[in-house]
Amino acid sequence: MNAASSKRLRVLTLNAISRAGLDLLPAERYEVSDQQDAPHAILVRSQDMHAMAIPESVCAIARAGAGTNNIPVDAMSQRGVPVFNAPGANANAVKELVLAGLLMAARNILPALRFVDGLRGSDEELSELVEKGKKHYAGMELPGRTLGVIGLGRIGSLVADAAIKLGMQVLGYDPDITVDAAWSLPSQVRRAHSIDEVFKSSEFVTVHVPLMPATKHLVNSQRLALLRHGAVILNFAREEIVDAAAVAEALQSKRLSAYVCDFPSESLVDVHGAVALPHLGASTREAEDNCAVMVANQLREFLEHGTVRNAVNFPDVVMERESPYRLAIANANVPNMLGQISSTLAASGLNIHNMLNKSKREMAYTLVDVDSAVTGEALQALARIEGVLNVRYVPV
User: Fold this and answer.
1) Position 276 pLDDT exceeds 80
2) Which end of the chain is more exposed for a tag (fewer CB within 10 A), N or C?
3) C-beta separation of 60 from 303 below 8 A
4) In the Cβ-directed half-sphere of 138, how many Cα atoms lie within 13 Å?
5) Same domain, 74 and 174
6) Is residue 24 domain-shared with residue 102, that is, in the same domain?
7) What is the secondary structure of 222-283 as a DSSP string?
8) From the candidates 40, 238, 255, 392, which is the catalytic residue?
């Protein structure tokens, strides 16, 4: 149970967070630093939190990025703590790097650079060596080639649009595409009915899906065997989505001509055709600013009003405030929870002015505006309801 107070809200930063985001947490209301004994919230980028003892005072975690694999989301759900992220905030940065990888593979840029780096001699000698050697690095042009895009969220849609503008044919697959993503998808994208269809029909395949049990090793030896000879795989999503050992074997057998990724792997060291970048997908100033701004706004809305936007483990819940006295209740998604909450409030002498409840899988979240101040006894009574995970009093 967390009750708001007149004191400043304490936010712990586990990584360097862009000043563009931190400036949105005003000093008169927030105390933000990398040293906090009992923080109300945590801002994080890449630090692994799985072994961290997360204080009981924490009522929200916000990750300035898209993936949340470094955060113990399930444990936070059991405590009724939302985990926010910044979907789409780094999409343009990742899209640009995917395009760079696409061109690097198509034109054999990296091996050509390595060839030039190894040349020595006078200008005349270098010119002769270049003329003799350049034939080994002849590439292909992209117009008319087919790019398979697996995952059509914000990044996948941007990659598809850019590829179409380069003259490519695009085949897309996403069984869970959202309405917003479908609206933003270029009409020229052809729909695939399965992942296997993408592999059978594409010369280039790029993956843009989150890492979860169902997507681990989505790119494996069976699917690589479906590819046309000399195909290219691009992975700027998550390392484990691709079976690196299977890719190494496919490169060595020439089934693949190139594998371009953002994740160095021991399996791919010195393997011809493997190009690994040092996790540069979101490493631009603009992307870091965008992510920090998005999560800072989400965190502030939650702490000050109980609003939930873009939490990976909570439903989106936005209710216009109609009273200075608000309760935010996280609970298990079980029957009769609203009835118990309403009865408990009535027994505490509190009249409900407005209420909104939504659920997401096993988690439900309720905002309640009441007509008078909430006592500590009322908060304790709500917290005692079986299935209630967290209760916060959020007065203005």
Assistant:
1) yes
2) C
3) yes
4) 4
5) no
6) no
7) HHHTTSPTTEEEEE-S-GGGB-HHHHHHHHHTTSEEEEEESS--GGGTT-TTEEE-SS-TT-
8) 238
The β-bridge relationship of strands 388-393 and 2-3 is parallel
Is the domain of 155 the same as that of 222? yes
Q: Residues 185, 157: contact at Cβ < 8 Å?
A: yes
Which domain CATH number covers 196? 3.40.50.720
Looking at the structure, tell me whether residues 153 and 258 fall in a common domain: yes
pLDDT tens, position by position, 180-236: 788 888 899 999 999 999 999 999 999 999 888 999 999 999 999 999 999 999 999
Please, are residues 43 and 353 in contact by the beta-carbon 8 Å criterion? no
| Residue 248 and residue 159 share a domain | yes
Which residue has 């924490």 as its token pair?
58
Question: Same domain for 229 and 126?
Answer: yes
Q: pLDDT of 164-175, one tens digit each? A: 999 999 999 999
Entry pTM: 0.83
CA distance 274 to 257: 9
Backbone angles phi, psi at 130, to 5 degrees: -65, -45
CATH number for the domain harbouring residue 363: 3.30.70.260
Question: Which of the residues 28, 124, 266, 386 is marked catalytic?
Answer: 266
Residue finishing a domain among 228, 254, 276: 276
Quote the longest CA-to-CA distance of the chain.
93
Residue ranges making up the domain that contains 391: 315-396
Task: From the candidates 279, 305, 321, 353, give the one annotated as an active-site residue.
Answer: 279
300 tagged catalytic:
no
168 and 234 co-located in one domain: yes
Report the number of secondary-structure helices (H) and strands (E) in the chain: 13, 17
Q: Is 279 an annotated catalytic residue?
A: yes
Under DSSP, the state recorded for 176 is T
Q: Are residues 134 and 247 in the same domain?
A: yes
**Count of structural domains, the chain:** 3
Share of the chain above pLDDT 70, in %: 98
